[in-house]
Structure formats: structure tokens, C-alpha cells
């Protein structure tokens, strides 16, 4: 049997502690599967005295992850510190500089420095594995980097934030407001005290940026992503969607178009009978559309200590199974030097169906006016639903339009024209429709 | 750049021809992704003169796949011949004996000889990759062999036969009979002229046997699988299932129980709102339940020249990315020498819910008699639906029972007791219910 693979784990939060526990409890099974033992030789965290329910005796302790990366007796550095800069960044650089492989679960770090890290790793024949950084336990990185080699991707999309999917699922199932569901998510630990990063789509965007690079071979461009969160989705939208045969999900979508690559994160209508529409609660899902394979959808846990630790462990065992330096999987699917500059497609050129919900005053000619503005902008409609509330004589009327595939620019112009007519009450709601390739 | 990886392809049917075309058209992209070129140096097929729409000039032709495996200048032997014995078997043995890696899409071959092949390969440090053998383009082998290392599996199940899923989907959507849908599947090329192997579950069983070994570390036991096909599923079953909130799918299920491992292929009721219930037509799906990760579901194309070729290509590029002999992924998840004997759980000990549809004569006391037989066997019922057709005075009555979790043995006894009462018309229909871990 080959020498043990020595690993150092920086960060002992939920994921790190799970990882230590699993590696210790399953050392025999792991050694059998990998042909060599996996030994934790060093760990680092802020507080040495905290009880994490794991036995750290015999493991070298570092207060500072950078010191661990620089000095510990390790073959692989496991970065579970978090954050796009600071200690996470410094420690990964230190590990690569020393010739040590890296495993990380840090999407923010990769979204910012991934291309540079890939270059550093490839210069030295090192591996960077990061399965846990996107959609937690779902092996989407492996599928894209290894299984689908040779495929040309057309679109990659998914539900990649459990907080948002939990909130949208509860809103629909229980008829509750966004605010009520957010509070419930916070109570259950599915949402942070400051939930902005999740509900406004930033977290999804970091993950999407990594998938975009793997799919299209362009440099990571996390700052060039169109972002729209779920905080203004109302129960009326959800109900109207259901009535028309759709369900609302926060999707991250990367798509090749004639004018460049679209990267967008926004609430999306998906057909009610599609597989992805059934993905409920904190569960994640990623769909890969490519020309040889067709469509592959993977559904699984997107977060949680154990699920994330499972993905990190898969990354570690991949390194254990290869002889150090022997395997040549390019970090970002192709060698970093061959990545192309990101060519951003403009959102106003986006083509697709749209759901438009308008609240209007109950007045003769309004319906005709709306239909005219749509027609003037070349938008053809799949369905129109008008509903009066009839509670009082001058109660507002809700009009819901679903368009056939059209240009975002046309929709924006039509909605803007409608706003100028003076019969709208409040802001119009516009939600994009996304259709899986196979229904 | 490293030397080109030289491959020989035995079998130029739909998959083989797709593979040749893709490798030739994408040679540059593949070389970039793998760090070395992939070169087809040899092919073999029965008829040299057939037009396959691919350019075979410069490639050494062999009439006999065994001769190719024995003599061609190759690093990897790609077996696309088919069949559990004969040329497929002989050529794989010849390749391994020479020290050549093997890629195969042949589930029947692996179901019969997989353990022996794994032993031969591991003795020589060779790889056998076989992603395409189970669920076509879905990367389930990679997920189990590489991503989920360290996980203990509890259950693995899936829709692994497109023909059956196509037939069941059309029956439900269009209210057609099994026979009508089978004919349509044959017309469209989704079913063979002799469809027995697909519709009676043998094809699913071969795939399941491989997954069982990867999940539970036991030797492949393809002959010890409980088999029940879909040919006696009627439109009445499908309608009754829908009414009770279920859909019928042909599943292969491998499950660890207290008395051993269950391997079973049978029509199965899955909850209508589960993700797997939405998997329609020829699409396949595989669910992996394990203790660290939780539940992972993968949905994708289970057959077709391109999708299968994509999986084969992924297997080839994995070998291209590793230096020959350097990677140590055990063929069956753990070294063949460490596989355990298969310990079969008896079907009569299977625990689960059951759907039972009975056609009975319309006579006082029948309903009470059925309820009594169930109670006498300790079976508690989740729901009972009785429906008279009222077409004529003595028209049969349909009774549908759904049980809570119970033992198969109890169900068999109860049904047998009911049969002895003399009021049944025709055979009772019994269909097992399978529930995903997360709904």
C-alpha cells in the first residue's frame, strides 16, 4: 500500500468538524477504496478550546490557517475558512507555492481568484478540487470537468440556493408571504440573520460564475452577472404562475447566445410538470445541456455539514487515488492559459418568454391599450388573464400576460409605454420564463 | 504535451460510429482538455464495406474484435461489440492480458464477468471504465466510484430502461393499452422486435447488479434478482394509481436490509409529487441514498448513440488525463479481492407499502371478507376504494387497497386467502410502493 495521504484542514465549523469525524470513523473503508490511508496531520481554527465533538489529539494545531498552509506536514490543504479574501486567499496561495494540492468549498474565493489559482496550480502540476463550492453535495463539478469532456454546452442552469428555494416552496405550499417564510427560514437556520446575500442572488451568482467557466471555457466573470432576487415575489405571483401552469424558482442561468454568454440570476417561471419544478425546500438542482449528451439534471442537498463534507471527501479521495502530480485534470476544465475572455451578452438582448402581472384601474379601454402596446413592440401573447376583484366598484383589476419568446428589450419598452398611460397601480411585475429542453 | 492516447474501437454500430465521428471532429478540444491527443488507431466490425458516415482511412481495420484486442497498437480497448459472452468476453480478456485498459458499454458482459475482469485488471494496474453500461449518459458510475467514496449506501434505485418508461408514460398520458404502446415504441425504434428483454426487466436487472456491487461491496449477483416486468400493467392500474396519488414506474431497487441485500426489478408506485415520478418517456433516472451525502438523483438520457458515446468518451478522457497505470480507482469501487459474497434478502421478507387491485363479484359480504383477510395477516390499510361499474346488475366491482408498510409474506398470504374465497374475478394485481427518502 502507498504512503498515507496527509491532509491539513483549515476551518473547523460545521463542515470541517463533520469532515474530521467522517475521516476518523471510516479510516479503514477509505484506505480500502483509495489504496492508501488518509491521515489528518494538522488543523486550524480560531478557538482551540471549543468542543467540536471530535478528537484532535495527535493532530498538530495551528491558530492561523496561513501558518498551517506554510508549515504543516501535508500533501493536501483543505480550505474551509471562507471568504473571498484574507486568510482563505493567503493560505491557498501559500499551499500552492509550496507544491501542496488544494481542496476548497469556497465559492466566493474561486469566483474572485479561481483563474489565478488555476494558473498557479497548473504551473506546478497541482490539483485544485472544489466540488463542494457549487451545489454542495451534487457532483456537478466532476460531471462537467470529467464526464462531459468533449461536449459543447449550450445552457447550464439550476436551483443553487437552498434558502431561496425553501422560501419559495413554503410561500406556495402554505400561501404565506415572503416575509413570513424568511422569518421561518431564519428560525430553522436555513437563512442568515442578514439574508441579503442569499435572497438577492449573490450566492447563486458566485456558483454560476464557476459553472459558466467550466461550460464555456471563458474566464470567471462573477461581477458581470445580471442579478435579481426573490424579495419582491408575492403570493399573487405564485398563484398566478400556478394557474398558468408554472412554478417560480430562483435560477442561475448561463447560456451561450449569438452575441455572447448570458449569465443571469433571477426568479424564473418553470413549467409545473418539469422535473426541476418538483425540487422543493432546501434541495438544489443543476441542469447541464450539451450537444452530445443532451440534458442531464442532478438533484441533491446543496448545503449542510455532512453533505458538504461528503463532497470535500470525494475531492480528497480523488487525490488519494491518483499518485501526486500524475493526474492532469485542468482546474477549470481547460488549462487556465487557454481560457477565453468573457464576452458578455446584454440582458436587453435576452430572448425568452415573459410573465407580466399588472394591477390596473378598472376603466374601459385599459385592456385594449395594454394589448396595443404589446403589439406595437412586436410581442405576441401566449395567454392573457384578466381578473376583477369586484370587492368595490373601483377595485383594481389584475391582468396577467404570458408572452411567446420575445426580446427583453421589447418587453422593457412595452412595459415602459404602459407605465406612461397612467392606469397602472403600483409597479408591474415581470418574471422570465425558462423551459427545460425536454419538458 | 504527452504522447497521444491510442485507442481501438471494437463495434461500429450507432454508438461506435458516433464515437468515431465525435473524436475526429473534436480532436483539438479533446487534446486541450486532456493534455494529449486521442487517436483512433484501430477499429473492428463485421462488414467493412458498410457506409457509416465516418472516415476510417488511416485506421487499421480488423474483421475480428479479438484480433484487434490482441494485435492492434493501442493503449485502450473500447468494447462496443455487445453480448455477455463470445467476442466481447474474449476480446476484453485479450486486452487485459496484454496490459491494455478497457472501456465498455456492455452491461450484460459486466453482470456476468465483472468481478473476474476487475481482478485481472487490478493485478496489472489497469483501468476498466464502464459509465455507459448503466443508465447511458448519466454519470452514475463515476458518482458512486469517485464522488461518494466513504459513504455507506442504504438504497439505490432507478428508472433504467427507456423502453418501459416510454410505454408507461404513453399509457398514462393517452389512456392507451400496454400492447398499443409497445407497438408504437417498436415503430419508433425504442423497443426491439423481440421486446422481452426490456419489458420483462432483464435489462434493468443487469444494470442494477452493477450498481448493487458499487453500493454494497458485494460480488455481482445478476442471477439473484427478483424480476417482474410491465406486461401485465393495465390502464386500470395506472388510473387507480393516479387517483390515489401515485404513478407507476419500472424500478430497479437495491437495498440493504437486516437479512441481506434486496435486489428487485418490478413495476412500482411512486408518489405523484416526487421528482422521479416526473421522469417521462425514454429518459432514465438513478437515485443514490447514502448516509453522509443524503439523497442524490440524476436524470438524463439512458440510451441513444450520442448520449452513450458521450459516456464512453468521458471514460476515455479519464484515462487520457491520467498517466497510464497511475490512477488507482478500483474497478468495482473496492479491490475485487475485497468484495464480499452476495447475501440475498428474501423477497417474502420485503417490507413496504402495497397497492392491491381486486375485481370481485358484486355480492354482500365480499368487502368485509377482504378486510378480514387483511386484518388476519396483520396488514393495516392506508386507503380502500370500492367502485361499482353499474353497467349491468352483475357487473364486477373493483376494489383497490393501499397498505401501510407491511411484509411481502403477509400480503401473499392475505391475497392467497382471498383467492380461496371464490369471489375474485381474474387475477389480483399487486404492485409495490416505493417512497423516495425526501418526498
Automatic annotation (TrEMBL), chains A, B:
Coiled coil: none
PROSITE patterns: ACT, HOMOSER_DHGENASE
Gene3D superfamilies (alphabetical): 3.30.70.260, Dihydrodipicolinate Reductase, domain 2, NAD(P)-binding Rossmann-like Domain
Positions of the catalytic residues: 207 (proton donor)
Pathway terms, separated by semicolons: Amino-acid biosynthesis; L-methionine biosynthesis via de novo pathway; L-homoserine from L-aspartate: step 3/3; Amino-acid biosynthesis; L-threonine biosynthesis; L-threonine from L-aspartate: step 3/5
Record: residues binding L-homoserine: 192
Assigned keywords, A-Z: Amino-acid biosynthesis, Methionine biosynthesis, NADP, Oxidoreductase, Threonine biosynthesis
GO biological process terms on file: methionine biosynthetic process; threonine biosynthetic process
PANTHER family: HOMOSERINE DEHYDROGENASE (PTHR43331:SF1)
Protein name, per record: Homoserine dehydrogenase
Amino acid at each position: 500500500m502507498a504512503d498515507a495521504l496527509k491532509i491539513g484542514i483549515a476551518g473547523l465549523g460545521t463542515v470541517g468538524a463533520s469532515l474530521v469525524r467522517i475521516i476518523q470513523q471510516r479510516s479503514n473503508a477509505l484506505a480500502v477504496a483509495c489504496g492508501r490511508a488518509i491521515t489528518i496531520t494538522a488543523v486550524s481554527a480560531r478557538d482551540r478550546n471549543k468542543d467540536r465533538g471530535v478528537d484532535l489529539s495527535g493532530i498538530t494545531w495551528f491558530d492561523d490557517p496561513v501558518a498551517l498552509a506554510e508549515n504543516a506536514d501535508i500533501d493536501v490543504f483543505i480550505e474551509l475558512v471562507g471568504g473571498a479574501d484574507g486568510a482563505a486567499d493567503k493560505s491557498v496561495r501559500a499551499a500552492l507555492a509550496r507544491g501542496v494540492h488544494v481542496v476548497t468549498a469556497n465559492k466566493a474565493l474561486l469566483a474572485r481568484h479561481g483563474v489565478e489559482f488555476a494558473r498557479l496550480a497548473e504551473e506546478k502540476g497541482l490539483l485544485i478540487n472544489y466540488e463542494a463550492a457549487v451545489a454542495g453535495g451534487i457532483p456537478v463539478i466532476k460531471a462537467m470537468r470529467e464526464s462531459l469532456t468533449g461536449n459543447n454546452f449550450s445552457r447550464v442552469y439550476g436551483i443553487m440556493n437552498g434558502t431561496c428555494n425553501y422560501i419559495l416552496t413554503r410561500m406556495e405550499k402554505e400561501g404565506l408571504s415572503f416575509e413570513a417564510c424568511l422569518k421561518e427560514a431564519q428560525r430553522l437556520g436555513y437563512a442568515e440573520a442578514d439574508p441579503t446575500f442569499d435572497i438577492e442572488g449573490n450566492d447563486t451568482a458566485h456558483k454560476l460564475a464557476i459553472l459558466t467557466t467550466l461550460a464555456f471555457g471563458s474566464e470567471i466573470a462573477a461581477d458581470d452577472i445580471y442579478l435579481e432576487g426573490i424579495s419582491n415575489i408575492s403570493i399573487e405571483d405564485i398563484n398566478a404562475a400556478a394557474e398558468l401552469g408554472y412554478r417560480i424558482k430562483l435560477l442561475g442561468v448561463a447560456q451561450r447566445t449569438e452575441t455572447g454568454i448570458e449569465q443571469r440570476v433571477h426568479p424564473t417561471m418553470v413549467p409545473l410538470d418539469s422535473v426541476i419544478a418538483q425540487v422543493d425546500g432546501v434541495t438544489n438542482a443543476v441542469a447541464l445541456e450539451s450537444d452530445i449528451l443532451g440534458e442531464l439534471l442532478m438533484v441533491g442537498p446543496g448545503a449542510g455539514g455532512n453533505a458538504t463534507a461528503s463532497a470535500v471527501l470525494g475531492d480528497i479521495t480523488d487525490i488519494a487515488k491518483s499518485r501526486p502530480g500524475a493526474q492532469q485534470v485542468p482546474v477549470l476544465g481547460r488549462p487556465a492559459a487557454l481560457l477565453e475572455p468573457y464576452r458578455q451578452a446584454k440582458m436587453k438582448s435576452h430572448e425568452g418568454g415573459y410573465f407580466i402581472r399588472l394591477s390596473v384601474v378598472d376603466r374601459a379601454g385599459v385592456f385594449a391599450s395594454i394589448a396595443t402596446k404589446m403589439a406595437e413592440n412586436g410581442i405576441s401573447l401566449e395567454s392573457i388573464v384578466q381578473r376583477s376583484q369586484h370587492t368595490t366598484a373601483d377595485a383594481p383589476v389584475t391582468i396577467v400576460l404570458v408572452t411567446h419568446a420575445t426580446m427583453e428589450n421589447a418587453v422593457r419598452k412595452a412595459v415602459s409605454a404602459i407605465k406612461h398611460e397612467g392606469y397602472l397601480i403600483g409597479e408591474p411585475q415581470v418574471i422570465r420564463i425558462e423551459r427545460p429542453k425536454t419538458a
